[in-house]
Amino acid sequence: MSTHVGNVGSADCFEGSLGRDLLLTERSIIDDMISDVFGFNAIQIGFSDYDFLSNSRIPNKHALSESLTADICGCPYKNPIKSCSVDLVVMPHGLEFSSNPHSVVREVERILLPGGVLVLSAFNPLSFWGLRHIIKRYTSSGKHVSPELLSLWRIKDWLKLLSIDIEAGRWGYYRLPLAREDWRERFQFMESAGDRWWPIFGGLFFLKAVKKVRGMRITLDRWPTYNPVHQTIRSTQKDTAESLKSRRYTV
Q1: pLDDT by residue (tens digit) across 185-201?
Q2: What's the angle, vertex CA 76, arms to CA 111 and CA 30, rounded to 5?
Q3: Single pTM value for the model
Q4: Angle between helix 101-111 and helix 152-161 axes, rounded to 10 deg
């Protein structure tokens, strides 16, 4: 599996025994965060081969990717979706695997409706996953380049500047990221202990945020006309094809 985010390639994070374990943890938390979000259009940015919108009650659900076979073909940092047309954006690792994560956040703010919800996940640099990332960065071959892991506080600053208010946050996956399943089971106790005693050192962090528009007053004659997001897409296949000349990242 090769998922493209921004103009760089993401790694096979969810493959193998450890990857499946990670995917199960992420889906469980993201499902819980999006279960009470309603609207008309939902977009997933990042890892489009895996459905993180399955638990959403929103009828129109699509994945945005640079792949020419994706639901919506486009670059997350310069996406083709109409402004103020999306109720929910889900980004599983949609920032750390981008060459321009700040632009991705700006584009998310642009396409979200006032009151729209953003749910994102990312690896925590201050965790065993962060240590694993550092080791892989200095031991991997020249063919693979590790992405830059973004801290929670850095992402929160970006969201605050764009008037996207944090509504909820979660930490997860405190166990050692070991390849062998039997060894991971031996450290299962760290899940409950970590959640209680050292939550900020979880391997993953999750944010649920809402786009706020200060001083906005809704009137019936200006209520937005909801259309399927596919009707608002501009053709970007030429730009996307050029951006596919990317490096392959590993975590």
Answers
A1: 777 777 777 677 777 88
A2: 75
A3: 0.80
A4: 40
For the chain, the domain total comes to 1
Encoded tokens for 71: 């639901």
The bridge status of strand 8-9 relative to strand 41-45 is unpaired
Phi, psi torsion values for 121, nearest 5 degrees: -130, 155
Domain boundaries, position 196: 4-249
Distance CA 208, CA 198 (A): 21
Report the CATH number at residue 183.
3.40.50.150
